[in-house]
Structure formats: structure tokens, C-alpha cells
Specification:
With 417 residues, this protein is α+β, with helices and mostly antiparallel strands. It has a six-stranded antiparallel beta barrel with strand order 3-12-15-14-13-16. The protein has a four-stranded antiparallel beta sheet with strand order 4-11-9-6, with no helix packed on it. Strands 8-7-5-10 form a four-stranded antiparallel beta sheet, with no helix packed on it. The protein is elongated, with a radius of gyration of 52 Å. The two termini are 76 Å apart.
Length: 417
């Protein structure tokens, strides 16, 4: 016989509602908890990063650039006249002396002008000697005339003095005394005139000789010019050194001022260093520099800073003070490091890949004993080749990542494995 059981539908409904409520609460709690979790940090291989530690102390500011060695003594030998290149006597890289003939030129016009100038000079010198004899003869004649008049005047003066004494004693007449006086006075006037004529003749002779001497000097200068142009057909080095370049060919016609050869002294070299324009603002003459020739490092100092910027770089001339190592030669590629200043007691770190002076950048700081790195904003100050000053954002002992972390620009935290 069937027995009717008591109904429990209500209790089941209540339990289902309770279970659903609990499940909803748990799901909401889990969702809320997950929403509060930070996104998983990407992993970075520790072997691929370049870490460094922030330090405090002295920091040497330096800038570096590539360059070449160039001779300090370079002489371009120019053509002095229009000429024809006959032959090369020497070719690069010949060792030359000042008198070494590099090439031979020819120009018939220059040769003719030199001969004409020589004969013009000889003619002017002959005219000077002839004029000198003539004016000396005329001057001697004038001096002789003056001497004769002076003699007549002295005799007339003595005669007048004698007649005057005799007239005073009554031994001769006053008429004779007056006649001798008039004669003496006339000769005195004539003597004065002849003296002035002698002076004028002397001045005239000096002027005539000076004018002719000027003409001689003019002809001499012209002859020397033509002679130097003739000698310039034998193209000489002019300095001790090495013949580097012959930019003309045999048979070529050259014009005045055209470069015929380049000679350089290989024993006196300087370095031309190309410094980035952003780093060259603090470079000044007198600063110390080191030049790496790949066969040794030599010391020097900055001698000149080019005021212009070419292709984003500034050319800095460095005079080398130390002896150059073997193998140093013109056009050799070198590395130059210039010391700007020595900073004392500053906070600094190795220079990050994208770190520029006087800027603010984001950099990863290593935390949790090297397990993670977080991005921090760091204000940078003065920079050097391998180090940079920390103005704000880091402290002594902090470790940071200097290598390129641009692949993680969208993350503020990375894990190091």
C-alpha cells in the first residue's frame, strides 16, 4: 500500500536560491580580485641587458669623435704664368727638398721677356753711369768757376784794404781807393751768385741721378720678375716633405694660379676630429685631447674649433704634443677624445643608450634583488662619453638598465630571468 510522503519542494527551492546567491557572490569576488591584479610583467633575459650602478664622486667630461691625421705644413705649388707641361721629373710619393724639381714647363714668351728685361736693365744701368759722369763734369766746371771768382774776390778785397790804408796815410788818392772798393763789392756779389749756382747744380745733379737710379731699380724689379717667372718653369717643391699630388698631366696647358703639385711635411701632423654639433658647444682651444692612432695613443691639445657645422659635425683641430708612433701618416683614420672638465662630487651613472644631456628620460631601475625592474623618470645633467650626471630620480647605489629597452616602452615593469 502506497504511503504519501510529506512535500519538501519549498526547502529545495530555498536551497537552490541560497546556492545561486553564494555562487554569484563568489563569481563577483573573483572578478573583482582579478580586476585588481596587475597585468603579468613581460620577461627579459638578464644576459641581454646592460646594468650599471649609480655612484657619487669625480666625473671626467669628455667628447669623442672620428677624424684623420693631416699635415700641418702643406704647400700647393701654383703656376706663375701660362705655360705648357713638358715632363714630370718626380712622381708621388717622392721625398723632396726645397730645391727639388718636380716638373718642367715651357713658355717661349717668358723666355723672350726675361732676355728683354735683362737688356733693358743693362741699358738703364749704362744710362745711369753716363749721366753720372755728365753731371759730375758739369758740377766740376761750376765749382771751378766759383773758385776762380772767389780768387778774384779775395785779391780785390786785399787790394781795397791796401788802397784804403795808403789813402788814409795820403800816399794814394781816394779815387783809386773807391775804384778798388767797387771792384771788391762787385766780385763779392758775383761770388755769392756763383755759390748759389753751385748749390743749384749740386741739387740738380742729385735729382737727375735719383731719377735715373729709380729707372734702374724699376728695370731691375722687372728683370727679377721675369727671371723668377723663367725659373718657375722649373717647378720646385719649396719645402722638405713628400710629394703627394700632381693634378696636371704632361702636355697640358696651365694658367697663372693653377695648382701644379702638393707637397706636405709628414713629420708634422695634426688631427682633424669631427665632433657632433650637440657635443661641440663646450669644446674650446687649449683643452687636452688624446688621439688613438690604432698603434698607440698620443697626447695633444685643441688648437682650433671650426665655427661652421658641416653634415651635423664640427671640425676640431688637435695639435699633437707627443711623438707620433711608427706608422702615423697623413690621412690615417684616428679616434679623438677631448677632455672638457673634471666634475667633483657629482651623482653619475653610465650613459644610457638614449640619454642626452639636460633631458628627462624613463629608465628601468632594478629592484627586488634583481628579480624585477620598474620604470622611473630621471632628470639628466651634464654628459660625457661613457657617463652622465644624475640631477634627480636616482640615488647612490641604485642599479639601472642602460641598454636599449624600447621594446618594452608600453610596460612600466619587467621581470628579469
Amino acid at each position: 500500500m502506497d504511503i504519501q510522503r510529506p512535500s519538501n519542494a519549498r526547502a529545495k527551492k530555498i536551497r537552490r536560491i541560497a546556492y545561486g546567491t553564494v555562487a554569484l557572490l563568489l563569481l563577483g569576488g573573483v572578478t573583482y580580485g582579478l580586476s585588481k591584479l596587475r597585468p603579468a610583467a613581460p620577461s627579459v633575459d638578464r644576459a641581454t641587458i646592460w646594468p650599471d650602478e649609480v655612484k657619487r664622486g669625480a666625473m671626467v667630461r669628455e667628447v669623442r669623435g672620428l677624424g684623420t691625421l693631416v699635415p700641418e705644413d702643406i704647400r700647393w705649388v701654383p703656376a706663375q704664368t701660362t705655360a705648357h707641361v713638358d715632363k714630370w721629373v718626380l712622381r708621388p710619393p717622392a721625398i723632396v727638398k726645397p730645391s727639388s724639381i718636380i716638373m718642367e714647363l715651357s713658355d717661349p714668351t717668358v723666355q723672350k721677356d726675361a732676355v728683354d728685361a735683362e737688356y733693358q736693365l743693362k741699358g738703364a744701368e749704362a744710362d745711369y753711369q753716363n749721366l753720372k759722369v755728365q753731371v759730375n763734369s758739369d758740377l766740376m766746371s761750376q765749382k771751378a768757376t766759383e773758385a776762380s771768382v772767389r780768387s778774384d774776390y779775395e785779391q780785390a778785397r786785399i787790394q781795397h784794404e791796401t788802397d784804403e790804408k795808403l789813402a788814409d796815410e795820403g800816399l794814394t788818392s781816394r779815387l783809386i781807393e773807391r775804384q778798388s772798393k767797387v771792384k771788391s763789392e762787385q766780385l763779392a756779389i758775383r761770388l755769392q751768385l756763383e755759390t748759389e749756382r753751385t748749390k743749384i747744380a749740386t741739387d740738380s745733379a742729385t735729382a737727375k741721378l735719383a731719377a735715373q737710379q729709380a729707372k734702374v731699380e724699376q728695370m731691375k724689379a722687372l728683370y727679377q720678375l721675369k727671371r723668377s717667372q723663367l725659373e718657375a718653369l722649373h717647378v720646385r717643391a719649396g719645402i722638405d716633405g713628400v710629394l703627394q699630388l700632381l693634378p696636371v698631366d704632361v702636355g697640358q696647358q696651365v694658367t697663372p694660379g693653377m695648382n701644379l703639385a702638393r707637397v706636405a711635411n709628414p713629420k708634422k701632423l695634426r688631427a682633424e676630429i669631427k665632433i657632433a654639433e650637440t657635443q661641440a658647444k663646450d669644446v674650446m682651444p687649449g683643452q687636452k685631447a688624446n688621439i688613438d692612432t690604432r698603434n698607440g695613443i698620443v697626447g695633444g691639445h685643441v688648437s682650433r674649433v671650426d665655427p661652421s657645422v658641416i653634415n651635423g659635425t664640427v671640425t676640431v683641430d688637435v695639435t699633437i704634443d707627443d711623438p707620433l708612433p711608427p706608422g702615423a701618416r697623413p690621412d690615417l683614420s684616428v679616434d679623438g677624445t677631448i677632455t672638457l672638465e673634471n666634475l667633483k662630487d657629482v651623482l653619475y651613472v653610465g650613459r644610457p643608450v638614449h640619454g642626452q644631456s639636460d633631458s628627462t628620460i624613463g629608465i628601468f631601475k632594478i629592484i627586488d634583488d634583481g628579480a624585477e625592474a620598474v620604470r622611473v623618470n630621471v632628470k639628466l645633467g651634464r654628459s660625457s662619453v661613457n657617463t652622465i650626471e644624475i640631477v634627480q630620480g636616482l640615488n647612490v647605489g641604485d642599479k639601472v638598465i642602460l641598454s636599449d629597452m624600447s621594446a618594452w616602452d608600453n610596460f612600466d615593469r619587467v621581470r628579469l630571468k
